[in-house]
Design goal:
It is a single chain. The protein is of the alpha/beta class. About 45% of the residues lie in helices and about 20% in strands. The chain contains 11 helices and 16 strands. The strands form 5 sheets. It has an 8-stranded parallel sheet with strand order 2-1-16-13-12-9-8-5. Strand 6 and strand 7 form a beta hairpin.
Length: about 300
């Protein structure tokens, strides 16, 4: 009984903090929510996360998207500790990448585990509006398994929504390399997920790895996306590269997304850096992104 009471108290605290945060940083304050995916500076975050976050804030970023949540710690910090650090630097955490696995789903109870309920609570405490799942733990080649995974996602998304948190899915290239009934797996997923509870974070570079034009899906499903990973992609090296230096038609993609979708969270990410350091790369990308008309 004690653990349940602690969980309820933590959830109440998270929701209260989340509500206050919404009031302070609503759309009237920022025209665009622009963040950096912290996987872009993963080695720096491992060495000195506090110093790295300080440098990111100095560059002009006002939001970050964490990509490390292990044993209920974010880069080694509890949710309240990480919230304090980001607050001190004037950084918001509106989205994050956090896994949702088979082990988190209790099929017989139609519920998620207490472990994942704690994950949702921690997301709220850090101020998140959208928790993004960057993987699909069910067998993507088996359509029956895919259906089971989608069922679990839908229920988890409903429970998260009841707590004030949106759930998103982040695509990789595999969803466009696996076909079911003559259509991309991703098409099947989009049609089966309950849009009331599951939205999408589109990774335009990951899609391009599979040879798919992001504009095809943006035009086909413009209202499915709440977030986008803003990346460029070099088709020759098959690597992520600095914004504007790859093969993606970013001007067309971003202009269309800005005018025709419901994207709220624009997340800059770069995984390979050329001759730049990771920190120099994400600073360059932020300045380049602003040239597309995005001001945070």
């Amino acid at each position: 009984m004690k653990s349940k009471m602690n969980r309820r108290e933590a959830l109440a605290t998270g929701i209260a903090t989340f509500s206050a945060f919404m009031a302070m940083t609503g759309p009237s304050i920022r025209k665009y929510h622009i963040s950096v995916q912290l996987y872009s500076v993963r080695d720096d975050m491992k060495k000195d996360p506090v110093k790295t976050l300080s440098k990111i804030a100095e560059m002009g970023y006002r939001e970050v998207e964490p990509a490390s949540y292990v044993d209920h710690k974010i880069y080694g910090f509890t949710a309240p500790e990480f919230r304090k650090i980001t607050d001190d630097f004037g950084l918001s955490v509106l989205t994050s990448h956090t896994a949702f696995k088979k082990a988190h789903w209790l099929k017989d109870k139609n519920d998620i585990t207490d472990v994942y309920k704690k994950t949702i609570e921690d997301a709220l405490i850090t101020g998140q509006r959208m928790l993004v799942v960057p993987s699909f733990d069910w067998d993507k080649n088996n359509i029956e398994e895919v259906k089971k995974g989608i069922e679990a996602f839908n229920k988890m998304g409903e429970l998260a929504s009841n707590s004030g948190l949106e759930i998103g899915f982040h695509n990789h290239h595999q969803e466009f390399e696996i076909m079911h009934d003559g259509a991309y797996l991703y098409d099947f997923m989009l049609k089966e997920w309950d849009r009331r509870f599951i939205s999408q974070q589109l990774d335009i570079a990951n899609m391009s790895v599979a040879g798919v034009d992001p504009m095809v899906f943006l035009r086909k499903y413009p209202h499915y996306y709440s977030s986008i990973h803003v990346k460029d992609f070099d088709k020759n090296t098959k690597l992520s590269t600095h914004l504007g230096e790859g093969n993606l038609d970013l001007d067309t993609i971003l202009t269309f997304a800005k005018k025709n979708t419901q994207i709220q969270y624009w997340v800059i990410e770069q995984e390979d850096y050329g001759t730049k350091t990771p920190l120099d790369a994400v600073e360059y990308d932020l300045n380049r992104f602003k040239r597309f008309g995005f001001i945070g």
